[in-house]
Design a protein that fits this description.
By secondary structure, this protein is an alpha/beta fold. It has ten helices and twelve strands. It folds into two domains: 6-57 and 181-316 and 347-372, Rossmann fold; 76-179 and 321-329, Rossmann fold. Helices cover 36% and strands 17% of the residues. α6 (211-227) links the parallel β7 (201-209) and β8. Residues 1-24 form the signal peptide. Residues 80-380 form the ABC transporter substrate-binding protein PnrA-like domain. This is Nucleoside-binding protein.
């Protein structure tokens, strides 16, 4: 918590308290089914709460650090993708973009990519990491929490190799954790959804019901409820924990999204990897709006046929984190990395491509600043 702002801070605390109550009352554990958070959607726009004031001269776009004079030409980068791999238009593509940028700006001359299968064993993941380390790739970057156990076992076997893992906090002398405040960025997605819903009725589609994806759900619900306490919210997961196919099944994403739209939702937020393509298709078929995740999905060429429904994306700067990790390793300065990529360091945020949220950026930046200053506390759990 930073400086107090008297009555204004009290009002913001009240807004945050409303969000927490909403989480407790509405965001029940859904498994992979479709429990709904009941609310006041009556076929008309939401009655909106007064937003926090935006900071003077606020900017919604994140700023990137360039490579400076760092030379990474001696590094051989191994990149172990999660399910879906390069081309998923989401999480894996963001990690790949970080390596691509390191090749262009830092001079990385050699890299290797491999991709996990939805049903592969832990031994297969460990074998992938061991092979990269044995072949001299250093660093080895594991994309996703599914690699947690493998990194725990393989990293100690190669003490001279630096490992990084995205989305999991691990201890180890040669392991760097690249973790994010997904709940904070998702809070802003929830606010945007409440402002843009014509029915005061929105939806969340999660890929796999894990603690990580529940962070997206928790933030989205709290943000929507902070902006519009009576909003109605649908929630579905495509698969239960352990079944990673939920991140690579656009057809299932389409079906779940269509069900939410048929129930009256008109803005959908997905945290479902490549399955989000199906969410966008469903939104387009119903003339609804959708919110992307991880990268600015409006700009993704593989989503060109549905980009007009993407009103914003919850940006998770996986590409920046991967690039910064490679840069820090080349400079022998891993301690320079933040412990968590949150709103304060522009590690998460929202996109403005397409212009659909241009009229509410002041409100979004007001909520963003309130979170950064600690006036609004965002829960990372749906309850």
């Amino acid at each position: 918590m930073r400086r107090s702002r008297g009555a204004f801070a009290s009002r913001l605390a009240a807004i945050s308290f409303v969000g927490v109550l909403a989480l407790a009352g509405c965001a029940k554990d859904t498994g992979d089914g479709g429990d709904n958070a009941s609310g006041g959607g009556q076929g008309q726009p939401c009655e909106l709460a007064d937003p926090p004031a935006a900071p003077q001269g606020s900017e919604s776009n994140t700023e990137e650090n360039d490579g400076g004079d760092v030379d990474a030409s001696d590094l051989k980068v191994g990149l172990a993708f999660d399910v879906g791999g390069r081309g998923d238009a989401s999480f894996n593509d963001a990690a790949a973009a970080g390596v691509d940028r390191a090749e262009e700006e830092l001079g990385v001359a050699d890299s290797k990519e491999t991709t996990a299968a939805a049903t592969e064993s832990e031994d297969a993941k460990m074998s992938r990491l061991r092979q990269m380390a044995t072949d001299g790739f250093n660093p080895v970057i594991a994309v996703g929490f599914a690699y947690a156990e493998s990194v725990k076992k393989v990293a100690p076997q190669f003490p001279d190799t630096q490992f990084a893992i995205v989305d999991e906090s691990l201890d180890g002398d040669n392991v760097t954790s690249l973790v994010f405040a997904e709940e904070q960025g998702s809070f802003l997605a929830g606010v945007a959804a409440a402002y843009k819903s014509e029915n005061c009725h929105v939806g969340f589609v999660g890929g796999v019901n894990t603690p990580l994806i529940q962070k997206f759900e928790a933030g989205f619900i709290q943000g929507a409820k902070a902006a519009a306490p009576d909003i109605e919210i649908e929630r579905d997961y495509l698969t239960p924990a352990g079944d990673l196919s939920g991140f690579n099944d656009p057809n299932k994403g389409n079906v779940k999204a269509a069900g939410q739209l048929n129930s009256g939702a008109d803005v959908l937020f997905h945290a479902a990897g490549a399955s989000g393509k199906g969410v966008f298709q469903a939104a387009k078929s119903k003339d609804a709006l959708a919110i992307g995740v991880d990268s600015d999905q409006y700009k993704d060429k593989t989503l060109a046929d549905t980009k007009d429904v993407i009103m914003t994306s919850m940006i998770k700067e996986v590409d920046v984190a991967v690039f910064d990790f490679i840069k820090a390793m080349a400079a022998d300065d891993l301690d320079s990395l933040p412990e968590r990529f949150d709103l304060a360091v522009n590690g998460v945020g929202y996109s403005t491509s397409g212009g659909k949220v241009d009229d509410i950026t002041e409100q979004l930046d007001g909520y963003k600043q309130a979170i950064i200053e600690g006036d609004i506390k965002v829960s990372d759990k749906p309850e």
